[in-house]
Amino acid sequence: MKITDRFGTIDKKQAEKLGYEILPGDEWLKQDVDILIPAALENSITEENVSHIKPRVKIIICGANGPVTPEAEDHLEKKGVVVIPDFLANAGGVVCSYFEQVQSNQNYYWTKEEVLANLTIR
Questions:
Q1: Pairing mode of beta strands 59-61, 35-36
Q2: pLDDT by residue (tens digit) across 76-98?
Q3: How far apart are CA 117 and CA 37, in angstroms?
Q4: What pairs with residue 35 in β-bridges?
Q5: 27-81 tens-digit pLDDT
Q6: Of the candidates 13, 59, 21, which has an alpha carbon nearest to the alpha carbon of residue 38?
Q7: How far is it between the farthest Cα atoms of the chain?
Q8: Can you say how many angstroms the Cα of residue 68 is from the centroid of all Cα atoms in its chain?
Q9: SS3 64
Q10: CA-atom Rg of the chain in angstroms
């Protein structure tokens, strides 16, 4: 919280002062880790960049909506990487994206309480 503005944007200079490493945007994909969590953009892992994923990665947890393209998923499956899809890993986010679409289509605004009430399983 100390390095973000009121919109949640990270102040990179402040982060560096606190010792955080700042990497180019696509470097997350190349990290030598066990688990990758694409959690920001659709189509983050594609046929063109799937080869950048290190062999150590065994699980990809889709936090964003549709972050892995079908072609990339085919490559990952052949390598034995388990891909947990967004509708399981980020069910609340997927449902809330639907709520946003409904509100936009109806030109209507729901309060936080209404969103949470609609998100609750009845």
A1: parallel
A2: 999 999 999 998 998 887 788 88
A3: 28
A4: 59
A5: 999 999 999 999 989 999 999 999 999 999 999 999 998 999 999 999 999 999 9
A6: 59
A7: 47
A8: 10
A9: coil
A10: 18
- Output the pTM of the full model: 0.73
38: left (phi over 0), alpha (psi -120 to 50) or beta: beta
Q: What's the chain's length in residues?
A: 122
Take residue 24 and report the two structure tokens written for it: 């180019």
Q: Which two tokens stand for residue 95?
A: 């449902």
What the block records as the tokens of 90 is 């980020």
Are residues 60 and 84 in contact, defined by beta-carbon separation less than 8 angstroms?
yes
Which residue matches tokens 């470097």? 27
Amino acid at 13: K
Six-digit token string for 51: 């080869």
Return the SS3 of 71. helix
